[in-house]
Design a protein that fits this description.
- The protein is 40% helix and 24% strand.
- It is built from 3 helices and 7 strands, in the order βααββββββα.
- The strands form 2 sheets. It has a 4-stranded antiparallel beta sheet with strand order 1-2-3-4, covered by helices on one side.
- α1 packs antiparallel against α2.
- The mean pLDDT is 91.
Length: 148
C-alpha cells in the first residue's frame, strides 16, 4: 500500500439509527409545538408563537446533539492513522501504535499506544459485525506493513 492510499471507515448502523432518531425528534417536537395553544393552566399565562418556535428549536438542538454521534471516522494510510470520535480526535503516526484491539464484548475497537495509553476507535463498532471485523483486519495489516 502506498502512503497516498487512504482507507476510511465509519460506523454504518449507528449513522442510520442517529439520522432516523434525529428526524423523529424534530417531527415530535414540531407536532408538540402545534399543541401549545391557549392557557398554560390555572394561572394567567398563555402559550404564544414564541413558545411554539422554542419547542421546534429545542427539537432541532436535540437532533444536532444526536447527529454528533455520526461524527466518528478513522482514516489510515502508510504514514499513520487519524481517529475522529464524537468529541475530539487524534492523528497518530504508526510508530506510536503498538496494537489494534477489538476485545470480545467491546463496543468498538481501540488502539494500544507505545506509552501504554489507549485510544478508542468509535468508527469501528461491534454493531457493524463483519464490516467492523474487516476494518480491524485492514488496520492490523497496515500496522504490520509499517513494522516490517
Amino acid at each position: 500500500m502506498t502512503a497516498e492510499t487512504v482507507l476510511r471507515f465509519r460506523p454504518r448502523r449507528a449513522r442510520v439509527v442517529c439520522w432516523v432518531l434525529a428526524v423523529a425528534v424534530v417531527v415530535v417536537c414540531t407536532l408538540v409545538s402545534f399543541g401549545l395553544r391557549g392557557s398554560t393552566g390555572d394561572g394567567p399565562g398563555v402559550f404564544e408563537a414564541g413558545d411554539q418556535w422554542a419547542m421546534i428549536g429545542l427539537g432541532v438542538a436535540l437532533a444536532i446533539g444526536i447527529l454528533m454521534f455520526t461524527r466518528p471516522r478513522v482514516e489510515a494510510d502508510g504514514t499513520g492513522i487519524r481517529v475522529r470520535n464524537v468529541i475530539g480526535g487524534y492523528e497518530l503516526p504508526w510508530e506510536v501504535v503498538r496494537a489494534v484491539r477489538f476485545g470480545r464484548g467491546a463496543p468498538w475497537a481501540s488502539l494500544d499506544l507505545e506509552d501504554d495509553d489507549t485510544v478508542a476507535v468509535m468508527a469501528v463498532q461491534a454493531a457493524d459485525k463483519q464490516y467492523a471485523v474487516e476494518a480491524v483486519r485492514t488496520l492490523r495489516a497496515l500496522l504490520a506493513e509499517h513494522r516490517r
